[in-house]
Amino acid sequence: MTPTGRFAPSPTGPLHAGSLVAALASWLDVRARGPQARWLVRIEDADTERCLPGLGEHILGQLAACGLVPDDTPVWQTQRTARYQAALDALIATDRAYPCGCSRKDIDAALAARGMTHTRHGERVYPGTCRHGLQGKPARAWRFAVDPLAAPSDLSAHDVQWTDRRLGPQRQDVAAEVGDFVLRRADGPWAYQLAVVVDDADQGVTDVVRGEDLADNTARQILLQRALGLPTPSYLHTPLVLAPDGQKLSKQNGATPLDLGTPAAALEALDRAAQALGLPATPATTTADALAGWVGPWRHLYNSRP
Prior knowledge:
This protein is of the alpha/beta class. 34% of the residues lie in helices and 15% in strands. α1 packs across α9, α6 packs across α7 (218-228) and α8 (263-276) runs parallel beside α9.
């Protein structure tokens, strides 16, 4: 199989320093695999309420300004709804997905009845209220049955172990730490977990390189891959760029869009991203030379497979 990586930004704002780190990391990881490897870009615009018109094209322009040009035509999630529906239908047919009528308030009340509380930034563990029927409520979402409905006591079905190429051995009991998670939300958009699994499989992605904040999603995605009979790629989660308050730098906390208006500005932004990844500052004077110069150090630092 051709080594294939991808960068998958959401067009909710322009690229900032943190997102450029993820883009550069995924590009370098592919280039370290040799000339036959492919680097793809996917615009994750499935959540149409949060995505802004024209930003997908703007992000592609920002990437091009940095010399990060995909090896194939970018894919847009809003053009792939039929594939997501087919995956959901397959899960329903095998009793791995079911309708849920619970609101967040309902879930919090059910958790409170069990003596559990939901912290502001913590996971709201779904208690399985609708697993065996809606109990007269209208369906608000479709959820993935983390363990097969016929064998909920089979720990191996939901206790997921994998090895991250940077973080090392990882483990998550998805049933205990997440519960049955949403595949399609009440308002219609497809959930990230299902869309990313279907997209990666369809695009032949063999190596996922993304920010460390997404590592917690990996176990859920592996369970979906298994349920749909799809291959599991390798995973590498990169260091995060932090805001002055110590939180992850993001569009939500006011990350400043990158200034890439000149070749010098693009080179400077790339250099900062490379140093965030533990790569040396570049002596190069062009983005092309800088990118080429980081491939060897990346291969050494992150042990890219030939």
